[in-house]
Design brief:
GO biological process, one term (chains A, B): carbohydrate metabolic process
Number of strands of chain A: 26
InterPro entries (chains A, B): 6-hairpin_glycosidase_sf, 6hp_glycosidase-like_sf, Beta-AFase-like, Beta-AFase-like_GH127_C, Beta-AFase-like_GH127_cat, Beta-AFase-like_GH127_middle
CATH architecture of the largest domain in chain A: Alpha/alpha barrel
Oligomer: homodimer
Pfam families (chains A, B): Beta-AFase-like_GH127_cat (PF07944), Glyco_hydro127C (PF20737), Glyco_hydro127M (PF20736)
Keywords (chains A, B): Hydrolase
Shape of chain A: globular
Structural class of chain A: alpha+beta
Number of helices of chain A: 20
Helix content of chain A: 25-40%
GO molecular function (chains A, B): hydrolase activity
Largest sheet of chain A: 10 strands, antiparallel
């Protein structure tokens, strides 16, 4: 590994994403999702499943108070299993001293506080901060003296804590608590929750580890791995990195810990959970360095791979990075929807086998696309390669955003690429596919996950190291980076980019340098050349000196007039030189409409194409095109193979904010092919078709105009 | 209804199906299936799930003997629910006094004895008859004094008999017992089992009926309806017809009996089975005369519709026949696979919504295709319309036969139209789809169902009434029919047809008349003009007088020279006149290859075609064509829209008996479209294809050469 290529996200205080695209999304999160979610955490949303999240923390506090009062008289609860999702017998009168909800319900709070933390960075809000501080007080008061903090076991009986790692979620709760605590600390400077998370992490580090008297287990649902690396980075405490590495190194090794757990339960005739466990479901079927195919629960997988990349970077572990690259290749070459979604099957919410990417029965969980963005960003932090950025962008602009309605009030868990509402209503086989977004889920992972990634999108747009500022996503706004090691000959110096971007709707983006008092500032600024703009010539100008092309040879020395050297590496354009105030770097990326075909091993998509333009994947909806979308076939005679015949129009009035629509020339099977009396089967004859135009909208905007058909793939 | 058009199957003693196609299948049943099945009934098949069928009958006999010995001391078992499929704790030592297996396990015997009965008609076999008599002795000894005969309740407790009609299967057991008993009586003249079936039916008729003190329930799993009509016809006892009509008239009326059962159980807090019941699953959601869409469990549905048609004919009930026609139209126009299969979804083994006919996730149970053949034959018995015969033929020659391996030793329950073995192995969503036939099933409905329909195929080929002999299927062999009412001016007279047939492999069939001593015999012989031969000109000759065409005008009077009048009605050619010995009716049906497209509402099949020739539907297998069948596209430039470019070849060596293979010119996507490194998505470009030939085999012969891909639908 080449450590000089490593980079890290920039502190969100130093990033302001202000372009209309992302600002709108962030404002939705701030004004709709975060307040709504707080109500949900407190079971005050009419018609939605109660979360019981704050209820559980309060119950744990009450229990602790009783313990304090009763002292040695206090009888701690002896563990009893009450189900993976325990509900009160009388929903109107939950017992104030009992745990309810899913075993991982604590994380509702952690995900909320994480989004709150990011939001407060750019949008101080004393009232929100007051509410958050109050919640943190309750959460911290629930923590046991030894640092343990998962109300599921605190309330149900600590005697079985850490006894069911494969199904229960204590380490998952730890991971989310760390992520939330760090975000809130970053957003407010307040470290009360961070200290609580550290204490929990310290306790976990005492229980798990390589010493003979330590447990050799690891998380059933991953996330602690990447969270611990982040905690290491936030605190500088090496033990958290060691624990993350331990979890990763231990995973899937023999004797298999999850098998051991099941065998122990079988021996003890302990029947709360199954004795057998599907190891690939939790990526525990072999040591992670030997895994070459992405398998199992897709969110778990994405979180694991992210943690692996984190540890690989922090420990400069080539074998671990190799494993990350193998898994990346398998996902991108075999298991990735063109919407940036992953995890094709609802069976285990999992990756299906290679090339199995069904459209109408797709799972493609919102959180799985988010986990892919996590993974991609971490791969970028190791090496800036445009492919990582392309996939991250594809996930973010399509499936991640599709997870949330345009009014921020309803959410998709599942993101199909084809919907026939009749099938959703009548076909139990696709009971998981909903034609409209749902208000909230009892298992509410996706809404807060969208909230936290949208609020922190600046961390995905920009990373930096001592010499280079990387622009991965062309977000409009500003970003400041500091360069230099501070050692002799390499003074610390700061540089700010401020710019505007048309992306995703147009191809122009322009950044102006602010070098401040230290100008000129010597630095490298590296810009991702998006895959969607290649191989057409990219137009770049630096302070007026302009050049077209993408190859290194075309760019080398091109900016001599501006005093910059240019290099292209792995799809990034590195501009190095002394930067002065007011210098402008402008891009004009070609953003043509492209009709994409899938590898014909994807049986579902043979003879079909999907339309993309820039980072946006498009789809056809019944609202624009009527029913029976399967009747339409792309008319290449009019569209041209270069898709120059496809209309591109900016519209402002469909959803109340600007988007780009496509108008695709199609041939539509004539209605007389549908005469009901005709019966089912007729002798083949060339189709009778009529020329028509098919309106395509961005995939992330689908299902905002009532129930109707939708399809991403269109007959070719 | 026009009663003069009614007809009935001909006694199997008067039919001999000897053509090589059907004779081979019947011999398989006789030599393989029936002996194997007897071993299975007695739990003597190594590696197969035990049936426990004869075990249960013997246990019931033992119990009855105990009762006889103990007299009033005998304590009858009080009902306890032991599950829908009760298995012994120690499989090696089942308790000889307990019931095991599915609640409907008695029917294994009834289905077996039915096949035995048919088989003995044409192939007397004293040893088999001895075994069967022995089994009948045991079964009859198990019958209660009141006539009740279902070992499930006899052994588990009669106090809950007839208390769970929606899920348990007493009336289903009654139906199969009747069918088996009649077949054995027909085959051997022995009526011991028939008398037992009558006694059970008498008891059921005392429990269920319109009187105020009778139960208003009806079968959860239909079959008793058609069986009771058959019992009425066999015995002349009107009460059986009345009971059948009662079951049909009562079904789905308000207050709904199945809802009542559930509510009663809820009231009594009786928790063995769900209180709620999916009424459409059992076609009990509305009165049968108001049902216009085929819904629910497809076998149940097909059996119900068959019973409805029987009762409609026997009672000349137009409203009931209208309902049958509505349901028929819905199946044939919306819910029928091109393989003659029905019931597209494994969820409830049921009809899916209109036009939902998935290929790779298909259910298409063998028994459902059999039930469709039942229904079609009964529709033919009301009115001879070629459409009914076409569908019956399509079901029989494709899905029904596909249910059994060519060696008669393994069976499909599920009949997909597309198989990717990797998906079968890895995708739990299609866990029901097997790429190879299974040895036997615990729930062994399909193998014996195939056995009984193949053994009695003569009943599907020919029906007759007082004036007309109908030839529905062109089976080679002989059939005798009696004409005349026996009243003055209409003497009873007999006529025999003896003939040969190339169908399904060729289009020629020829029948010679044997009129015997009464010659010439005045009669009408009606021949189905198969839909697959229309609109090409059918060539018909009667005693040398030959004509081509299918319209009435083309045929009327054409056979004057032979002294016959000709009429075409609903796709049947009626030849009327005085028939003498040696007169020959010969057909030359065009049997072209046809490429069929589906109605484009069948989303799965858009842009695809399936190949049929005569009654046979074809498919492509990996064994002939390599993997990746999805890469092939029909090359219409070479095949021609008339499919004259498709090769038709008779081969004898592939499966050891003659079949016809097709050779279809295709264009195959070049392998370089599959370069693994290419990734998943590429810009669309016209496909690079290579000309190739795709070998198609009859669908019913698939999966007899190991595991591989298969597809019926091919890209067009």
């Amino acid at each position: 590994m080449d450590k000089s290529r490593f980079s890290r996200p920039i502190d969100l205080h130093d990033v302001a994403v202000t372009d209309e695209f992302w600002h709108r999304e962030q404002e939705l999160v701030r004004t709709e999702v975060i307040p709504y979610q707080w109500e949900a955490l407190n079971d005050r949303v009419e018609g939605a499943d109660p979360s019981y999240c704050m209820h559980n923390f309060k119950a744990a506090v009450r229990q602790k108070e009783r313990e304090g009062e009763q002292g040695k008289q206090f009888e701690a609860p002896a563990y009893s299993y009450r189900g993976f999702n325990a509900l009160p017998e009388d929903p109107k009168h939950p017992d104030p001293d009992k745990f309810y909800g899913f075993v991982f319900q604590d994380t509702d709070f952690s995900k909320w506080i994480e989004a709150v933390g990011y939001s407060l960075v750019n949008h101080p809000d004393p009232e929100l901060e007051r509410i958050a501080d109050g919640a943190i007080d309750i959460v911290c008061a629930a923590q046991l003296d030894n640092g343990y903090l998962d109300t599921y076991y605190i309330l149900n009986g600590m005697d079985r804590a850490f006894h069911c790692l494969r199904w229960h979620h204590e380490l998952y709760c730890l991971g989310h608590l760390i992520e939330g605590a760090i975000a809130y600390w970053q957003g407010t400077g307040k470290d009360k929750l961070l200290k609580a998370a550290e204490r929990f992490a310290d306790y976990v580090a005492s229980v798990f580890g390589p010493e003979p008297d330590q447990c050799k287990g690891y998380p059933g649902h991953e996330i602690a791995e990447m969270a611990l690396v982040r905690l290491y980075e936030a605190t500088g405490k090496d033990k958290y990195l060691k624990l993350a590495k331990f979890f990763i190194d231990e995973r899937g090794t023999e004797p298999n810990y999850f098998d051991y757990e099941g065998e122990r339960d079988r021996r003890d005739n302990y029947k709360d959970t199954n004795w057998t466990f599907d190891l690939p479901y939790a990526q525990a079927h072999k040591p992670v360095r030997e895994q070459r195919e992405a398998v199992g629960h897709a969110v778990r997988a994405g979180y694991l791979y992210s943690g692996m990349a984190d540890v690989a970077r922090e420990t400069a572990d080539d074998t671990l990075y190799d494993a990350c690259r193998n898994l990346w290749r398998n996902i991108v070459d075999r298991k990735l929807y063109i919407t940036g979604g992953i995890g094709g099957t609802h069976e285990g919410e999992a990756f299906s086998y290679n090339y199995d990417l069904p459209n109408d029965t797709a799972y493609s969980e919102t959180c799985a696309a988010i986990s892919l963005a996590f993974f991609a960003r971490r791969m970028l932090e190791i090496e800036a390669k445009s492919e990582y950025g392309d996939v991250m962008e594809q996930a973010l602009y399509n499936t991640v955003l599709a997870g949330m309605a345009l009014d921020g009030k309803s959410f998709f868990y599942v993101n199909p690429l084809e919907v026939n509402p009749e099938a959703c209503a009548k076909d139990k086989r696709i009971g998981h596919v909903k034609p409209v977004r749902q208000k909230w889920f009892g298992c509410a992972c996706c809404p807060p996950n969208i909230a936290r990634i949208v609020s922190s999108v600046g961390e995905y747009a920009f990373t930096a190291n001592d010499s280079t500022l990387f622009v991965h996503l062309y977000a409009g706004g500003s970003v400041s980076a500091s360069f230099g090691t501070g050692e002799a000959g390499d003074d610390r110096r700061q540089l700010t980019l401020e710019g505007t971007s048309e992306i995703p709707w147009g191809g122009k983006a322009s950044y102006t340098v602010h070098a401040g008092a230290q100008a000129p500032v010597h630095a490298t600024i590296a810009f991702r050349i998006p895959g969607w703009s290649v191989p057409s010539g990219v137009k770049v100008s630096v302070d007026g000196a302009s050049v077209s092309g993408v190859a290194a040879a075309e760019l080398a020395g091109a900016f001599g007039a501006a005093g910059k050297s240019a290099e292209v590496r792995d799809g990034y354009l590195y501009l190095t030189g002394d930067w002065s105030d007011g210098e402008t770097i402008a891009f004009d990326f070609p953003i043509p409409v492209r009709a994409k075909r899938a590898n014909p091993q994807v049986r579902e998509d043979v003879d079909k194409v999907a339309f993309v333009r820039g980072p946006i994947t498009f789809c056809a909806e019944q609202a624009d095109n009527g029913a029976d979308l399967q009747l339409n076939r792309v008319d290449f005679a009019r569209a041209g193979y270069d898709m120059k015949g496809v209309g591109v129009r900016r519209v402002d009035d469909v959803f109340g904010f600007p988007i780009v629509e496509l108008s695709v020339p199609v041939l539509r099977l004539a209605d007389d092919g549908l005469t009901p009396g005709e019966g089912l089967y007729a002798d083949y004859a060339p189709a009778v078709e009529k020329a028509a135009e098919l309106t395509l909208i961005p995939y992330f905007t689908w299902a905002n105009r009532g129930v109707g058909e939708m399809t991403v793939w269109i007959r070719a």
